[in-house]
Amino acid sequence: MGEMQRDVVVVGAGASGLTAANELKKAGHSVVVLEARDRVGGRLWTDTIDGAMLELGGQWVSPEQDALKQTIAELGLERYSRYRDGDSVYLDASGRLTRFTGEIFPVPAATEKVMVELIEKLDGMVAQVDPNRPWETPNAEELDRISFTGWLEQQTDDMEARDNIALFIAGAMLTKPAYSFSALQALLMAASAGSFSHLVDADFILDERVVGGLQQVPLRLAERLGDDVLLNNPVRALRWGDDGVTVTTDSVEVHAKQAILAVPPHLISRVSFEPPLPRLQHQMHQHLSMGFVIKVHAVYERPFWRDAGLSGTAFSPYELCHEAYDNTNFGDERGTLVGFVSDTNADDVFRLPAEERRARILESLSHYYGPEAQNPVVYYESDWGSEEWTRGAYAASFDLGGLARWGADLRAPVGPIWFSSSDLAGEGYQHVDGAIRMGRLTAEKVAERL
Q1: Residue 112 sits in which domain range?
Q2: Which string of b and e fits 97-131 if b means at least 16 CB within 10 Å?
Q3: Do 273 and 285 touch, CB atoms closer than 8 A?
């Protein structure tokens, strides 16, 4: 087994860990990044499937994501706008399809009024939330005790309004049923993007992509670190004390002054700590869990939906694919749709044989786009739930009561051990922007200790 000495050892070569390592290296400190996978990028992954370039993980850039946009520019990458010309489509509970433009779904006038009122109310509440300190929100404990479903039921008996408002947080972001996370967790999700209105606006939240794929961000960050990124090195053990840390993989032992665990919090327990982490971390990490969503990629000879004047944007809280978009690559003649199957729907279809699952998902897409949607030339399901070193998507969130109880402790270091990931971010929570912000912040704090 090889041995090495560094100022800082970083566990995890996703956007957060690689950002932290680069910042520390720029400040003159020696670093090494240990990555369990055979690639860098974590939840960012661009791959070629049957001749089609697909972004299997995170891919979008929003206007308020300054940290990500700065990094993209600094790395010499280009952004381009998601295709959105034409009408969006909405399917109601009866399966009736309506074309529409704008942000508010084409629901009955009374339901629209309730939805607008709820969005305004949530925007007002979100304005009182500091995404870096959500536990200081007025009535934080009370809001953290009630599920988002329960909170919505207190506001209105209009089920379609509730279903649609829940969709923006539950299906589209936390990828958990709205009865399983708190109203406070929902407010944090919205505050991290600037407002609840931003989550409602697909043209805002899914604004741009990166030419060649967003995984280029971690790939280029890793290039700058060269041989200081070691792949295929899952960390098995971490010994720590006042004199620093010793981190062990199957092939290398690293002695360092400080360690940064740049992995989702539910994976921290995969490492054996000596001495064990304090009871606080043991409790807290058990109440953080990943959501679950299948990202479905369907590539066609041409973007046929555009001929019908459709943007490709589609929504329905009543469909297997609750949302879908035109995801055609930059300069590509072929057309790509991306759809999402979330939480319990994802559970259900993974109980089916692969061919039946594919048929069910494509049938759902055909309800939005017509029968042509059932015949893609390339079809692929991103199943992050089966990924050994991720185990879900998009990110981790607390169960009821967890955010108010432990939120303030999430980022607190334990001796020489620091924690950094998009799951712990305030601004940019769950997004690559948050991963980069956390990487910068953690590097700054670690550098103060060195």
Answers
A1: 104-200
A2: eeeeeeebbbbeeebbebbeebbeebbebbeebeb
A3: no
36 is in an annotated binding site: yes
- Distance (Å, rounded) from C-alpha 213 to C-alpha 79? 10
Are 33 and 16 in the same domain? yes
In a domain, 403, yes or no: no
User: Residue 36: which CATH number?
Assistant: 3.50.50.60
**What CATH code is carried by the domain that includes residue 134?**
1.10.405.10
Establish whether 256 is an annotated binding residue.
no
Q: Both 272 and 347 in a single domain?
A: no
Neighbour count for residue 434 (Cβ, 10 Å): 26
Q: Are residues 169 and 236 in the same domain?
A: no
Cα–Cα distance for residue pair 223/238, rounded to 1 Å: 26
Furthest C-alpha separation in the chain? 69
Q: Token pair 């990166």 is at which residue?
A: 210
Q: How many C-alpha atoms does 252 have within 13 Å on its Cβ side?
A: 21
- Answer yes or no: is 109 a known binding residue: no
Domain count, the chain: 3
Looking at the domain assignment, is residue 93 inside a domain? no
Contacts 24+ apart (CB under 8 A), 204-207: 204/62, 204/63, 205/60, 205/62, 206/60, 206/62, 206/82, 206/325, 207/60, 207/61, 207/62, 207/63, 207/81, 207/82
Q: Do 238 and 252 fall within a single domain? A: yes
Q: How confident is the model over 66-122, as pLDDT tens digits?
A: 999 999 999 999 999 999 999 999 999 999 999 999 889 999 999 999 999 999 999
Query: Per the annotation, does 16 bind a ligand?
Result: yes
Whole-prediction pTM: 0.97
Q: Mark whether 158 and 111 lie in a shared domain.
A: yes
**How far is 22 from 229, CA to CA, in rounded Å?**
11
Asked whether 431 and 22 are in contact (CB, 8 A), the reply is no
pLDDT, tens only, 248-287: 999 999 999 999 999 999 999 999 999 999 999 999 999 9
Domain C-terminal end among 200, 232, 260: 200
H-helix or E-strand spanning residue 209: strand 208-210
Question: Which residues lie closer than 8 Å to 370 by C-beta, 6 or more apart?
Answer: 305, 308
- Residue 187 Cα to chain centre, angstroms: 16
* Within a domain: 391: no
What are the respective helix, strand and coil percentages of the chain, to the nearest 5?
Answer: 40, 25, 35
**Angle subtended at Cα 170 by Cα 357 and Cα 408, rounded to the nearest 5 degrees:** 130
Cα→Cα distances 58→135, 150, 168, 331, Å = 27, 30, 17, 20
- Residue 344 in domain: yes
